[in-house]
Design goal:
The complex is a heterodimer of chains A (about 120) and B (about 290).
Chain A: H1 11-24, H2 37-44, H3 48-60, E1 64-67, E2 71-74, H4 78-104, H5 109-121
Antiparallel strand pairs in A: 1-2
Chain B: E1 2-12, E2 15-26, E3 30-35, H1 41-48, E4 56-61, E5 64-65, H2 70-73, E6 76-79, H3 95-105, H4 111-120, H5 134-148, E7 152-156, H6 164-181, E8 184-188, H7 192-195, E9 201-206, E10 209-215, H8 216-221, E11 223-229, H9 230-237, E12 241-248, E13 251-257, E14 272-275, H10 278-286
Parallel strand pairs in B: 3-8, 3-9, 6-7, 7-8
Antiparallel strand pairs in B: 1-2, 1-4, 4-5, 9-10, 11-13, 11-14, 12-13
Classes of the chains: A mainly alpha (about 120), B alpha/beta (about 290).
C-alpha cells in the first residue's frame, strides 16, 4: 500500500489511486476488505475526512461498497472496471498529448509509428 | 455544537492585538491555525479558552458564555507553550508535579494515557521542566493536551523544537486520539507543510483578524500558480483575485485564487499552470493583493 504522497494532485485522489493500484496488482483482492478511513489516516498522517473522501470517490465509481458495521469491500469486477477507466485516461493523458507534441515538432504519423516500434524493440 | 468567538478585540495598552475577530469552531474537526509572528495566534487561543479577558467581545460555547462559567471551562483545554523564564512558576516544577497540576485542572483527565505517553516519549518525571530541552517541553504540552480529554483542545506550537520523527509521531498520536474521540483540536504551527494534510480546515490569522477559514483541500483546489508571457498572464487574471506577483524580463508569475466551483479558463493563452502547497498559498496571501 504505502506509496508516497506528493503535492501535484489532491490527497484524496491520490488515496483513491493507491487503492486502485493495489487492486490492479492483486494486493487487495475482490470481495476483500480495504483499510478503514482511520487506518488510512494514520498510515499517511492525513485527516480522516480526506481519507473518507478518497474512499467515497471509489464507492461512487462502483469499485468499493460498504458492508454495514464491517467496513469497505472491493466489488467483484472492480479490477476490470479500473482497467477500463485507466485506459480511457491513458488515451486522454498520453495519446492525445503525444499527438499534439508530435504535431508541433512536425513528426508525421508514419514517423511516429516508427518511433513506437523502435521503442518496443528495446 | 460549536465554540464561537464573537467580535473579539484585545488590546494590550495602546497595542491592538485582535481586532474585531469572529470565528466559529465546530465540534469534531482538526483546525490548523497559521499566522506570522505577532499575528495574534497565542492571544486568540488564550482568549478562546477564557484564560485571558477580552477588551471587547464574547466567547460562547453552545450558546453559553464561557467566561467564569466552570461548566464550559471544563470542556476547553489550552495547552500553552512552556516558556523558560525566571518568573514562570511552572517551569520550576518537576514533570510529575506539572502533570499532577494538569490533572487537578482538567476534570476528564486520563491518567493512564498521560503515564503511557511519558513512557513513550522517554521523559524523566523527576526532572525539572526548565532543565528539559525545548523538544521535551513540547512533549509535555502535547501530553497535557491529549490527556486532558477536553472537548475543545488548543495546542500552541506543539511541533516547536521536536525533531522530524517526533513530529510525525505527534501527528499520529493526534489522529489516533481524534479518530477515537472526535474531539476538536486547534493547532498552531509554523511548520505548515507537513501538517497541512492533518488539518481538515485551516485558519489564516493576519494582523489580528481572520483572513481565511476554509477546508484545506478546497482551498488548495482553488489556488493555482500561473506563469508565462506577462501579457498572456495579465489577460487571464483580469478581474480575478491575484496575489504575489513575480516578474522577470518578459515573464510573469502570479498566484490566482479562483472562486469556489469556478473552472480555470486559460483563454487559449500559452501559460504554465501549477498547483500550490498550503505554505505557498499562505506566503502568497500574506503578501499584498495586487490591484488589477
Amino acid at each position: 500500500m504505502k506509496e508516497v504522497l506528493n503535492q501535484e494532485k489532491s490527497i484524496y485522489i491520490q488515496i483513491a489511486e493507491m487503492i486502485e493500484n493495489d487492486i490492479l496488482r492483486d494486493v487487495i483482492l475482490e470481495e476483500e476488505r480495504v483499510p478503514s478511513t482511520n487506518e488510512l489516516a494514520k498510515l499517511y498522517v492525513i485527516n480522516p475526512a480526506t481519507a473518507a473522501k478518497g474512499i467515497n470517490l471509489l464507492v461512487d465509481k462502483g469499485i468499493l461498497y460498504k458492508k454495514r458495521g464491517v467496513g469497505m469491500f472491493v466489488e467483484s469486477g472492480a479490477k476490470e472496471k479500473i482497467k477500463a477507466g485507466r485506459k480511457a485516461e491513458f488515451y486522454e493523458r498520453f495519446v492525445i498529448s503525444l499527438l499534439k507534441e508530435a504535431k508541433s515538432l512536425g513528426i508525421g504519423k508514419a514517423e511516429l509509428i516508427g518511433m513506437i516500434e523502435k521503442a518496443e524493440e528495446k | 455544537m460549536s465554540l464561537e468567538l464573537k467580535n473579539i478585540t484585545k488590546c494590550y495598552g495602546k497595542k491592538t492585538v485582535l481586532n474585531g475577530l469572529d470565528l466559529t469552531l465546530e465540534e469534531g474537526k482538526i483546525y490548523g491555525l497559521v499566522g506570522r509572528n505577532g499575528a495574534g495566534k497565542t492571544t486568540m487561543l488564550s482568549i478562546a479558552s477564557a484564560q485571558n479577558p477580552t477588551t471587547k467581545g464574547e466567547i460562547m460555547l453552545d450558546g453559553e458564555t464561557v467566561w467564569e462559567n466552570q461548566k464550559c471551562l471544563n470542556q476547553i483545554c489550552f495547552s500553552r507553550e512552556i516558556v523558560n523564564s525566571a518568573d514562570n512558576v511552572s517551569s520550576a516544577l518537576k514533570v510529575k508535579e506539572y502533570l499532577r497540576m494538569a490533572q487537578m485542572l482538567f476534570p476528564y483527565w486520563d491518567k493512564e494515557m498521560a503515564d503511557r505517553l511519558v513512557e513513550e516519549f522517554e521523559l524523566d518525571e523527576k526532572q525539572k521542566i526548565m532543565k528539559l530541552s525545548k523538544g521535551m517541553q513540547s512533549m509535555i504540552t502535547i501530553i497535557v493536551a491529549l490527556a486532558s480529554k477536553a472537548k475543545y483542545t488548543f495546542l500552541d506550537e506543539p511541533a516547536a523544537g521536536l525533531d522530524v520523527v517526533a513530529r510525525e509521531n505527534f501527528y499520529r498520536l493526534l489522529l489516533d486520539e481524534y479518530s477515537e474521540s472526535g474531539r476538536t483540536f486547534v493547532i498552531s504551527t509554523h511548520i505548515i507543510e507537513e501538517a497541512a494534510d492533518v488539518f481538515e480546515e485551516v485558519i489564516f490569522l493576519n494582523k489580528g483578524t481572520i483572513m481565511l477559514k476554509e477546508n484545506t483541500e478546497e482551498l488548495l483546489s482553488r489556488c493555482i500558480h500561473i506563469s508565462g508571457k506577462a501579457e498572456d498572464v495579465d489577460d487571464i487574471i483580469k478581474g480575478k483575485r491575484a496575489f504575489h506577483q513575480e516578474k522577470m524580463g518578459r515573464s510573469k508569475g502570479i498566484t490566482l485564487m479562483l472562486d469556489g466551483g469556478e473552472i480555470f479558463d486559460k483563454k487559449g493563452r500559452d501559460v504554465e499552470v501549477s498547483p500550490l502547497s498550503l505554505q505557498d498559498v499562505f506566503v502568497a496571501l500574506c503578501g499584498r493583493e495586487e490591484k488589477l
